[in-house]
Amino acid sequence: MTRRTVRIAMNGVTGRMGHRQHLVRSLLAIRAQGGLDLGDGETLWPEPVLVGRRAHALRALAERHGLTEWSTDLDAVLADETVEVYFDAQATSARVDALTRAIAAGKHVYTEKPTAPDLADALALARLARDAGIKHGVVQDKLFLPGLRKLKRLVDGGFFGEILSVRGEFGYWVFEGDWQPAQRPSWNYRAEDGGGIVLDMFPHWEYVLHDLFGRVTAVNAHVTTHIRERRDEQGKPYTATAEDAAYGIFELAGGAVAQINSSWAVRVHRDELVEFQVDGAHGSAVAGLRGCRVQHRSMTPKPVWNPDLPVTHSFRDQWQEVPDNTEFDNGFKAQWELFLRHIAREEPYHWDLLAGARGVQLAELGLKSSAEGRRYDVPKLAL
To answer: Residue 274, SS3?
Structure first.
């Protein structure tokens, strides 16, 4: 078996998501398994080149994981002809410029979402990539989570019959930073730095709804900032200029309606940090990050509204757990492997920069809907 090395510039891996999910649990995990077996006698070996602004952090990260290559000079890395792929996990405000430079340098690009702070820039990136003839992909990790893969299995198997509605609950309490440190970076709460839960989460909801249930055709949203003052990483108070909660209604092609609440100011009273309930004419399901439970119409009990009597049974116990039936790998790693196969073997891959632009479009229209108090159609995008 022969081994082919693919050198990947990784920008933003000193951050939590870039480090834990993309470097450690994806590329280093692929290396730990001996590389990516392409199935024809060749193995693909990812070689990360760490890129960022803080030399000491990059050096420490490289030493911790036995890597030798890192740089604070993005242009020099992009000028290196042996680097084939550029990956971006920076803050949103820095992403467009870096991706534009990588595309101009002829690199294949793979990026976190949102791909840009606004739709015009997101579409411009997709057009640049198309015209440059490079391969491009956007992280859409929730599609690869065990719970949603089980949900997709139910959809594809016709379990629901006609799908009527989708209800989603996402969020948790992010500490204000006064008596406990916040578990999200402070820029998330500053609109001027690209923060806000809409730009962070609506792109996720777009691809989840699009791939599982149908294209989003209209949006009606309300957003708000519940916690208006927080403390940053140095303990200094600052005013939150970006929203920390969003309540959206999404109309889907085919007639189903999705309602999804997203909040960083909610305390969790559910089994997982995100849950989706799908109701269909023939059955319902509740899916989280890992688990998925179902109730078929033949097994649906007969609830009777009677506020004068206590409930003597558990509604949760009336649902059945969907079995795993397979081993589920880390979702970020699974998508990395698909993108690397796309590069190495031209295998199909449709989560590209245009798909990323759809997510930015939905976020932009969601914010506009809230600001103007009206429902907005979501036009189809084309390059």
So the answer is: strand
β-pair type (42-51, 36-37): antiparallel
What is Dmax (Cα atoms) for the chain? 74
Angle between helices 353-372 and 119-132 (to 10 degrees): 170
How much is the CA Rg of the chain, to the nearest whole Å? 22
How open is the CA angle 315-268-331, to the nearest 5 degrees?
A: 95
**171 torsion bin: left (phi>0), alpha (psi -120 to 50), beta (else):** left
pLDDT digits (tens, 9 = 90+) for 125-178: 999 999 999 999 999 999 999 999 999 999 999 999 999 999 999 999 999 999
DSSP characters for 85-147? Answer: EEEE-S-HHHHHHHHHHHHHTT-EEEE-S-SSSSHHHHHHHHHHHHHHT--EEE--GGGGSHH
pLDDT in tens, 106-135: 999 999 999 999 999 999 999 999 999 999
Would you call 244 helix, strand, or coil by DSSP? coil
Sequence-separated contacts (24+) of 297-305 with Cβ below 8 Å: none
Q: What is the dihedral of CA 109, 329, 280, 363, to 10 degrees?
A: -30
Residue 86 bridge partners (DSSP): 9, 109
pTM for the predicted model, two decimal places: 0.95
Contact 256, 166 (CB under 8 A): yes
